[in-house]
Amino acid sequence: MSFEKFKEADASEVPIGTYVQMISKSYSKYLNHKFNSIGLNSTQVSILFHIQFENNINQEKISKGCNINKGAVARSLKKLEDEGYLIREVDEDNRRQNIISLTKKGEETFKKIKEISRNYESRVLKNINKESLKELKELLKEIAIETVCINNEIEKNKA
Q1: Which of 80, 97, 98, 156 could form a disulfide with 88 if both were Cys (CB 3.0 to 4.6 A apart)?
Q2: pLDDT band for position 74 (50/70/90)?
Q3: 100-132 burial, b if ≥16 CB within 10 A, otherwise e?
Q4: Are 57 and 51 in contact (CB under 8 A)?
């Protein structure tokens, strides 16, 4: 379907996943464009977000929380560590795991990421009133929680 036809389509006839995918791809493309100049991509940005919100976290939790495979997380963490955004320290409770936290550079970069994200959100949501936006975010949160629960069930059933 062309973008013009998509814009004219009856919203109730388009699956929610189509909208989510479109938003996600556009957001990733925007972030990749904005962070290209400092050598970050959307996967690395997601990882930095996750570490910021749950500091002193291990690689497995990052992988699950970001829904990114362990290999991609390992490669991204290595690059982020080499570039000084984060540090890994051996977990004293489980010496086979590393605890990951942001460095000062990582924290400063996170502030820039947040500002860029806020600017993007403001631009994208400029025509939505505050009440509708609050409701939209609550609905999206519910949908996100449910999708994670469904994926967790799938993972559990694989074992």
Answers
A1: 98
A2: very high
A3: bbbeeebbebbeebeeebeeeeeeeeeeeeeee
A4: yes
Query: 48: burial class by Cβ within 10 Å (0-12, 13-18, 19+)?
Result: buried
Could you give the C-alpha distances from 93 to 79, 88, 89, 90, in angstroms and in order?
A: 26, 14, 12, 9
Predicted model pTM? 0.72
Residue holding tokens 């957001």?
27
Strand (E) or helix (H) holding 61: helix 59-66
Partners of 57 in the beta sheet? 100
Domain 3-127 is in which class? Answer: mainly alpha
Q: pLDDT, tens digit, for every residue of 4-49?
A: 888 888 988 889 998 999 998 998 888 888 888 777 888 898 899 9
Confidence of residue 125 (pLDDT cuts 50, 70, 90): very high
Residue type (1 letter), 85: Y
Q: Are 54 and 101 in contact (CB under 8 A)?
A: no
Tokens representing 35 are 């962070």
- Token duo for residue 109: 């970069």
The confidence score (pLDDT) of residue 83 equals 95
Q: Domain ranges in the chain?
A: 3-127
DSSP character at residue 69 = -
